[in-house]
Amino acid sequence: MTQASFSSTSQPLAQLLGHTADAVQAVRDGRSLTELLARCPAEMRAGTQALSFQVMRWMGSAQAACALMVPKKPPPAVDALLTTCIALLWPVASPPYPDHTLVDQAVTLARKRYPANAAFINAVLRRFVRERDALVTAAGQDPQGAFNHPPWWIERVRKDWPEQWQAVLAASNEHPPMTLRVNPRHGSAEAYVEQLAARGMAARVLGPKAPQAVLLERAVPVTQLPGFAEGQVSVQDAAAQLAAPLVVGQDLPPQAGAPLSSGARVLDACAAPGGKTSHLLELCDLDLLALDSDAKRLARVQDSLTRMRQSARLKVADARQTSLWWDGKPFDAILLDAPCSASGIVRRHPDIRWLRRSSDIAALAATQAELLEALWPLLKPGARLVYASCSVFKDEGEHQVDAFLQRHSEAKLVQCPPATGHLLPLPENPVMSAEPAAYDGFYYALLVKA
After folding, report:
1. Residue 262 φ/ψ region, left for φ over 0, alpha for ψ in the -120 to 50 degree band, beta for the rest
2. Which of 66, 284, 340, 390 is catalytic?
3. What is the per-residue DSSP string for 41-103?
4. Interatomic CA distance for residues 252 and 345, integer angstroms
5. Which is it for strands 287-292 and 313-316: parallel, antiparallel or unpaired?
6. What is the pLDDT of residues 22-43, one digit of tens each?
7. Does this model's pTM top 0.90?
8. Are 147 and 59 in contact (CB under 8 A)?
9. Cβ-Cβ contacts under 8 Å for 211 (sequence gap 6 or more)
10. How far is residue 257's CA from residue 254's CA, in Å, rounded to a whole number?
11. What is the mean pLDDT of the chain?
12. Are 337 and 270 in contact (CB under 8 A)?
């Protein structure tokens, strides 16, 4: 995010800082940014989101620096404002605002909201600007201050990826690119790049491993994308675009089974928000059942299908409770995009790291195992189940599938490199060698039923 993109909003900075500090305090109380931004006044939403995302990425460093300057923690609302401002004052390549502007507007806000603490806030922020280099160095001595993730998260990544853990954490703090998925029924990715160029939007085709993926040089509102309303293109991360070809059987080795034919029965379990659902239907005319336990989220799947001019059967149900929704006819393929920590997409949702708790991972892994056990019997012999999680934690990927294979001798894991296994946003993954920063962290396993 550049300084220009932050400051392009016409909203007063003091008001934006107030909404951002409220969001920081809410995240600390366990509420997501998505929830908070939905309630933010429409005219303030874009600016608040930009500032909030920046603060979430540097909150560990800001909290460490604040603790050095203010050993006795101030009231929560004041602490949230200080954390917000220090994170926005943190030395980065393109600071969101000049130091003096941000400090001045923070004090303006403090005089209105917390008049008794305005002088204190002014003194702390001015001290940070004055002693910034020394405070940044000191804050970096604390793991959370150095890597901007909770200590338990840092330790889990270090244990799972002893050679790459620092790079994985650093990648999670980067700004993600805007990646599109071109509907092949409307034309090729190369042709769509030409359409974008005609409108002055620079973009490029990502590569053969994600043939429908187009990487925008600069993010734009979807309303500016040619053909978006007509279903010509969707927004979807490149790593998420690897799921549908695995399910449909596009360019797979023989041991993965035959490609799906028109009319094949496919289950998309845990389908919301629907990106993978619509991708499946782009690749093949399927008899597709999309499940999700959340009615509001399932409505987003329908919205996506309507825009794409596609149809599928949608049902609100917990995929584990098969007796309540399954008609007894086995499926030709199943996509289980399991609920997970979302640790692989934290750069797109930077509040996730501060909302998750260490105990969440075991609970999520248990749910994933229950889903695998419930859905596996619904698969035809010789058919395939694709297990996916947007996580870099091995307990939600490699370890989960290893345990499943030990329980089921009739299940065969088919390696389809480079699309299967743990995908990290690092050059070590072959699928990402050309554009490692274009991919979120994911795990894929292709399981065939003997």
Report:
1. beta
2. 390
3. -HHHHHHHHHHHHHHHHHHHHHHHHHHHH-SS---HHHHHHHHHHHHHHS--SS-SS-HHHHH
4. 26
5. parallel
6. 999 999 999 999 989 989 999 9
7. yes
8. no
9. 189, 205
10. 6
11. 94
12. yes
Residue 239 and residue 213: Cα distance in Å, rounded?
Answer: 10
Domains and CATH numbers, the chain: 3-144 (1.10.940.10), 177-236 (3.30.70.1170), 238-449 (3.40.50.150)
Distance CA 20, CA 368 (A): 34
Please name the residue that has the structure tokens 């602490």.
79
The token duo for 185 is 């029924």
- Report the alpha-carbon distance of residue 58 to residue 149 in Å, rounded: 9
Q: What is the mean pLDDT of each run of 10 residues along the chain (450 residues)?
A: 42 92 95 91 93 97 97 94 98 93 97 96 98 97 97 98 94 92 97 97 90 94 96 96 96 93 97 97 98 96 97 98 98 98 96 97 98 98 97 98 98 93 77 68 96
Residues in the chain: 450
Q: What is the pLDDT of residues 281-308, one digit of tens each?
A: 999 999 999 999 999 999 999 999 999 9
Q: Which residues pair with 274 in a beta bridge?
A: none
Which token pair is 227? 């053909």
User: Residue 174 carries which DSSP code?
Assistant: S
Contacts of 38 (CB under 8 A, 6+ apart): none
The token duo for 273 is 């928000």
Identify whether 390 is a catalytic site residue: yes
Query: Across-strand partners of 414?
Result: 446
- In the DSSP assignment, the letter for residue 311 is -
CA angle 315/320/325 to nearest 5° reads 35
* Helix (H) or strand (E) segment spanning residue 412: strand 411-414
Residue 426's nearest CA partner among 434, 233, 326, 109 is: 434
